[in-house]
Amino acid sequence: MNFSVSEENYLKAIYHLQETDGKVTTNALAERLRTKAASVTDMMKKLDSKKLLHYKPYYGFSLSAEGKRIALSVIRRHRLWECFLADRLKFDWKEVHSIAEDLEHVSSKKLIDKLDEYLGYPEADPHGDPIPDSKGKLRQSNTIALNELQLNQPAEILQVTDQSDEILEHLKQKNIGIGTKIEVKKIFAFDQSLEIKAKNQIITITQQLAKSLFVKKI
Fold it and tell me: How is 158-214 classified by DSSP, letter by letter?
C-alpha cells in the first residue's frame, strides 16, 4: 500500500512524540507539524481507518504495529539520505535535514537497500541518530547525556539531539562534532554550565547544550 507524503509525515511525527510521551495528544502533534488541531483530528480518523494507529477521541493515540513499521521505514530513508548528502556530496550537517525531508518520500525499497549497501551499512546518520535496518530494527546504544558524565571521565560524542541550525553552527564553530573526544572538567554551581576539554581546548557550554550531546565512555 502506498501512502501520501502527508500521511508519512504524520506517522513519523507520531513515532518521535510517542518515544518520549507514550500516548500522543492532538495539540502536541499539531504543534510539532505546525498545523491546526482540526486538521490533525481529520488525519487521525483517516489513519485509524487504515489501522495504522490506535485512536480514541480525547484520550490521545499511538501507532499500531503497522503504523510503527511504516514510520521506521520513513526514518530509515531519511537518515540514509542524510548520510549520502553529508558523506558523499559533502553537504554541511546543518543542511542535510531539510533536503532529506523531501528525499525520504521516495519509497522504492530496492533503491533504499542499494543506498544502504553503497554507504557501507551505516549505523547512524551525521547527527548520530541511529538508522533502522532493513527490518526496522534500531541499534541500541549505551550513551548518556554529557551533563550526566562524571568529571574527568573520557568520552566520545555519538549523538546531537538538538539539531537546530543555531546549535549545529555553534558546535561547528567550536570544532565539536560526532566522534569528538571530550571530558567534563568542571560544573558551575551558579547555572550548571560545564567547562569541558575537547581537542585540547577548554570551553564552557550551557547545561541546555550539554543535555543535547550524548556520549559513550571510553
Answer: EEE----HHHHHHHHHTT--TT-EEEEEEE-TTT--EEEEETTEEEEE-HHHHHHEE
Residue 24: strand, helix, or coil: strand
CATH architecture, domain 144-217 = Roll (2.30)
Residue in the structure block whose three cell numbers are 551505516:
122
- The 10s digit of each residue's pLDDT in 104-136 is 999 899 999 999 999 999 999 999 999 999 999
Nearest to 149 by CA among 109, 118, 186, 179: 186
Residues 6+ apart with CB under 8 A from 21: 28
Report whether CATH 2.30.30.90 matches the domain 5-63.
Answer: no
Alpha helices per DSSP H over 52-95 = 65-83
